[in-house]
Write a structure and sequence with these properties.
CAP_dom; Pathogenesis-related Protein p14a; five-stranded mixed beta sheet; alpha/beta; 283 residues; 27% strand; CAP_sf
Amino acid sequence: MKANYVLSIIVFACALLPLTVQAESSRELLNLINAYRADPPRCEGAQEEPLPPLAPSMSLARLQVGSARQLKEAMRAVGFLAAGAEAITLSGPSDAAEAMRFAAQLNCRVLLSRRYSVGGVSQQDREWQIVFAQPLISPDLGDWQQAGRQVLNLVNTARAKARACGNTYYKAASPLHWSAKLGAAALAHSRDMAEHDRFGHTGSDGSTVATRASDEGYVWRSIGENVAAGKAEPEQVVNGWLSSSGHCANIMNGSFTEMGAAYAANPKSDTIIFWTQVFGRPR
């Protein structure tokens, strides 16, 4: 999954006079945007539903953006992992209220977008910049172990029902148990993929899932692995695997009794987030 970055530049026709930069004006504009989202007017001919407020982000407020490409690069530089982002630049408004009126008049679609949950506003004289973003990694995702156990729960829910993986029918299977060693093997491979910005089952050192599990001290009778990239949530990851016959077969394989899973991220990669799931049956 590649993130989407958009820049809109709006020029307000009036004389430009230097003003002192005030953080309070930026906060005021974000508050006005959130009030607008809470009680939205008609936008492009349609009545919009109320939206939750944008969470303030100092990282987004500090970005220096001149193009969509620069927006993408600037967000990567500050380590903001985004599924998508958009920036509006206003030139001319003398205060937050005027900036809000002008932005709403010409770009209500962005202000009322459900795609974004975080915002950052900056002001320099009569130049205003509003950055909207959706974090790729939700604050609710937690660390790799929490996310891995969410994957485990979703996989066990899937295994509880018979299903077809491609042309092969699988009976319901017993639930898997968490393995710390398989989790460590999954984390090692996810970090390796993220660090080297490469996707696949073979590690940068030529390792396989079998060698990685053994390196963690897991003595196995059978071993298997699923990998994914660019998916922001455990639900998206597991649903993607279930829609692929080979990955689905691993999930439904009744010979596996344990698993571990982990993610790792690289903000400089177009893929950004990498997932690994390792299945095993110990000796």
